[in-house]
Amino acid sequence: MPKLSSQTVTLLDGDVRVFKRDRSRAWQATFKIDGRWVRVSTKCKQLDDAKKRARELYVEYQVRQKNGLPVISKRFADVAAVTIAEMDKQVVAGAGKKSYRDYKIVLERYFIPYFGDRFITSITYEDLQQFAKWREHKMGHEPRASTLNTHNSALNRVFDEAVARGYMNRTHVPVLINKGRDSERRPDFRREEYRKMIATLPTWINKGRDGKSRDMRHLLRDYILILANTGIRHGTEAQNLRWKHIHLFEEDGLTYLEMHVNGKTGPRDLICRAGTINYLKRIQSRSPDIADMSFAELLKAQVDKPVFRLPDGAATKNLRQTFRLLMTDTGLLKCPRTGQSRTLYSLRHTYATFALLNDGMDVHTLAIQMGTSIPMIERHYSHLTPRLRKDMLTGKRHDLPPDEFRRKYDVQSHAVQREDLEAVGPDTVIEPELPQEPELEESVDSKVQDHADTQPLLDHKQPTPADRAFDLFDAGKLGEAGLLAAVGVTRDGYVPSETITHRALDAVDQGRLSEDGLVKLLG
């Protein structure tokens, strides 16, 4: 209770007290309701008026308590401040969620500025609707449903705190709304775009200035390759990764590289693609304090130092800007399929795309590997459905015995190769492989394509007749029947090249090619 002045008057056998606080002209009333002290201003300057008002307030609060209404209420800003302090306390104790950081930002940026002076019990559904309009104007766009989920979770934390402290009852918590726009397809890299980026990196690195600028580019190269070959999240998961979190284990005669990561959705273990060991060795070779150790010794020592750091040992948070510069310099900043700018997070989506298309990984396994939910995988990668069905449509899964099909089309892309495992030092000219793809039957077209892939990526190739036919088809100048005739699907010995396969699947994905046409193009 606050310090009372000497001018204190008791009413109703002492159940109610009326007093004046120092430097205040209005009389205050205090009384106990359900074992808790309540203090409220009578807003009266005359004692007789204050006594009458104090009796009325006492009865009023008793009625509120009997009818299940909160006896004490607080302003939104005060409850939000307590909520933020409680979340900070849990984070420090190691019991808080990673999402608490997002909740804190949301409360401080949106909810407190709008609802700060309002009593938390006075916030209604209509108020939330008005707030939604204000928030959209402040953001400059309609928020996505996933963003609104974060906002609603943050607001619910405040309401839960208010209920727990008796500032409001659960029945008075307003219904939260989520009418955000659906999540859009996320920008990733197609095979040829990924190849262009990786092939350009060595030259791009050498163009950087000596010193930290070039060191950043070297680190970015391996950071890109590790993200694209593990599916870990850029940000907290990558920043928290330390050498002690990396392990090798054997199973069925094969060796696998495992990482333990911790970030947005909590801790999890994941299996890295085979080539990841080379990129880790390359980072190790640029770190003087661990460069003299063998890779096996490094892992056995459980070194408690960040993986992603510069030669001077400093961890950097500026790779995002360096990556954007790379995207701008290579002309890959805008994803042509989504119209969005690519970010380091696009590498996680690229991992998911390659895992579904090239490995045939099922969504359940992929969800565990990436630390997300099956509905999230299905929501963001449903556009891959035509490609996921390509083996069924072409009949390839039924032309070969199961064991031969697995050997040929389901390569052990995550098993570490013996030569990589036993290599003493990293090859300075490591050729970063694309995530493993099933072998394709060679054809004249595929040989031409494979030869073209070895040429400088910026060179312009002479388009094949099939390419020209697809260009006309994409432009609406050629129909499906004309496309099939130009490609020559009825000719003896016709075998589709990889380029034809991808363009045909793209056309189905975009609704321009029928399933019957796809089957004919895929032979």
From TrEMBL:
Any Gene Ontology biological process: DNA integration
Domain of life: Bacteria
InterPro entries from the UniProt entry: CB, DNA_brk_join_enz, Integrase-like_cat_sf, Integrase_catalytic, Integrase_recombinase_N, Tyrosine_recombinase_XerCD
Core-binding (CB) domain span: 82-163
GO MF entry, a single one: DNA binding
All copies of domain Tyr recombinase, residue ranges: 184-394
Alphabetized UniProt keyword annotations: DNA integration, DNA recombination, DNA-binding
Signal sequence, renumbered to the chain: none
Record PANTHER family: INTEGRASE_RECOMBINASE PROTEIN MJ0367-RELATED, PHAGE INTEGRASE-RELATED
Family assignment from sequence similarity: Belongs to the 'phage' integrase family.
Protein name: Site-specific integrase
Organism expressing this protein natively: Roseovarius gahaiensis
Lineage of the organism: Bacteria, Pseudomonadati, Pseudomonadota, Alphaproteobacteria, Rhodobacterales
